[in-house]
Amino acid sequence: MTAAAAAPRRTRIQQEKRELILEAALEVFSAHGFRGSTIDQIAEAAGMSKPNLLYYFRSKEDIHETLMQRLLDTWLAPLRELDNVGDPLTELRGYIRRKLEMARDYPRESRLFANEILQGAPRIKPMLEGDMKDLVDEKAEVIKGWMRDGKIVQTDPWHLIFSIWATTQHYADFDVQVRAVLGPDRDGESRFEAAAHFLEQLFLDGLRPRRKG
Amino acid sequence: MTAAAAAPRRTRIQQEKRELILEAALEVFSAHGFRGSTIDQIAEAAGMSKPNLLYYFRSKEDIHETLMQRLLDTWLAPLRELDNVGDPLTELRGYIRRKLEMARDYPRESRLFANEILQGAPRIKPMLEGDMKDLVDEKAEVIKGWMRDGKIVQTDPWHLIFSIWATTQHYADFDVQVRAVLGPDRDGESRFEAAAHFLEQLFLDGLRPRRKG
DNA sequence: CTAACGTTTGTCCATTCGGTCAAAATTCGA
DNA sequence: TCGAATTTTGACCGAATGGACAAACGTTAG
After folding, report:
1. What is the CATH number of the domain that holds A185?
2. Smallest CA–CA separation between B74 and chain A, in Å?
3. pLDDT of the residue at B189
């Protein structure tokens, strides 16, 4: 934890209203990006007037920053759970499933994050180079251990993590495209089941047919 | 090809200036998104005044639309090349490599596209549900044929295509994050070589160690 | 040379947007 | 209950932005 300013005292109303605003802001920011969103939109989504909203947050930037700070912890949680107990392939499969569930259950968070990265991560680059890099490096070491033990194939653990991020978050970030291509038939819940099954197969065994036995 | 308005006659200068503007707009839009970009920025990047730019394009929307229309063709070109001649695994490996090369050589195009999709594809949804879906469905059939022949493993061809898109475009769209995590050491050209090698391995054989022989 | 056409620019306008402020309304502790 | 603190709002401001327009400038065919 980096040094944080002492948490200011807040009344009950302040806490509730701030939560309300952050929820509304997540909705709006994730749909239109930072520059594409207006304080008025957020205020309306939160059911209050613009000046009222600005009573709880100093600025639009302030809302976004608060949102991003909370998000990063949640976002990296599945990776934090990846550890050395249990069978490596099972661990990885579990990680993939958790990430895919996050894409399904928290698509707004995924898109908010994707938006920020796409714009060059102007507001969270330090966090990426700090906490995130440290965590990924740590987990890469765990994976390297599995490779040395012959539990999984020898390959690059960093790119492995990237590929898990990419394939799972794709279903949140590129949702419109996925829907457009799959069409209205194969929609709904089954999409994620099919994705989960496919990804498991891909990551475990790839595409080349195996010899029987 | 859907019905297009008859191409207006243009002078030599008009053609050149329009190209100049589109190049500048690609730079600006891909970095800041549509709403995040201003006509002034584009005009400056193109080395002309705002009213001058608006002499060549009716509006900001007009520039963006023109850009997107051109982009989609280029973007789907690698998939169009995927066909039934040659060994299936070689074909797929070639497709992955071509897509990765596009992410490396045309990151701005990738990000422009990602931006549009992230915002819900307000301007190109019809194209996604039309041309793009048709092409993907067609190629999915090709892949299904390979599966029937036992050339590749039985799985979902649509999700396979998604996973190729996701993993390759990730290196363009999430470039900042990739750099942040890999750090300044493993940067430069080698990053893409490592990615190519990793993806080839992943898609062909997955992570589970193979029995020898 | 000059008239017609194509190109460029300075100026201006309406709207949107982030943010301020003072006053009104409400809540809450003593 | 009453006064202080908190919350809410209407009105307003300055800057940014997309775009219009007419006048000026350049080019070229006859």
Report:
1. 1.10.357.10
2. 17
3. 79
Task: Indicate the residue of A158, A162, A202 with minimum beta-carbon distance to B163.
Answer: A202
Of A90, A15, A100, residue with least CA distance to A56: A15
Q: Is residue A44 in a domain?
A: yes
Same domain membership, residue A165 and residue A100: yes
Supply the range of the domain harboring residue B19: 11-57
Give the pLDDT confidence score for residue B213 in this predicted structure: 43
In contact, B190 and B123? CB cutoff 8 Å? no
Choose among A125, A199, A209: nearest Cβ to B150: A209
> Distance between CA atoms of A173 and A103, rounded to whole angstroms?
8
Residues in chain A, pLDDT under 70: 1-9, 211-213
Name the nucleotide with the smallest C1'–CA separation from A11: D6
Tell me how far apart the alpha carbons of residues B102 and B15 are, in angstroms, rounded to a whole number: 26
Interface touch B206/A209, C-beta < 8 Å:
no
The CA distance from A122 to the nearest CA of chain B, in Å, is 10
Shared domain for A78 and A46, answered yes or no, is no
Q: What is the pLDDT of residues B128-157, one digit of tens each?
A: 999 999 999 999 999 999 999 999 999 999
Q: Which of B114, B181, B198 sits opposite A132 (nearest CB)?
A: B181
**Residue B30 belongs to domain with CATH number:** 1.10.10.60
> Does the beta-carbon distance from A206 to B204 stay under 8 Å?
yes
d(CA B207, CA A159): 13
Name chain A contacts of B153, Cβ cutoff 8 Å. 201, 205-210
Residues A187 and A147 in one domain: yes
Give tens-digit pLDDT for A74-129. Answer: 999 999 999 988 899 999 999 999 999 999 999 999 999 999 999 999 999 999 99
Is A43 domain-assigned? yes
pLDDT given for residue B206 in this prediction: 85
Q: What chain A residue is nearest to B139 in terms of C-alpha separation?
A: A181
Q: Is A86 within the bounds of a domain?
A: yes
pLDDT of res. A96: 97
Identify whether B1 is part of a domain: no
pLDDT digits (tens, 9 = 90+) for B67-85: 999 999 999 999 999 998 8
Q: How many domains does chain B have?
A: 2
Nucleotides, chain D, CB distance < 7 Å: 6-11, 16-22
Do B41 and B84 fall within a single domain? Answer: no
Note whether A154 and B101 are within 8 A (CB): no
* Helix/strand/coil for A151: coil
pTM: 0.93
Residues B34 and B125 in one domain: no
Measure Cα distances from B6 to A164, B2, B3 in Å.
46, 12, 9
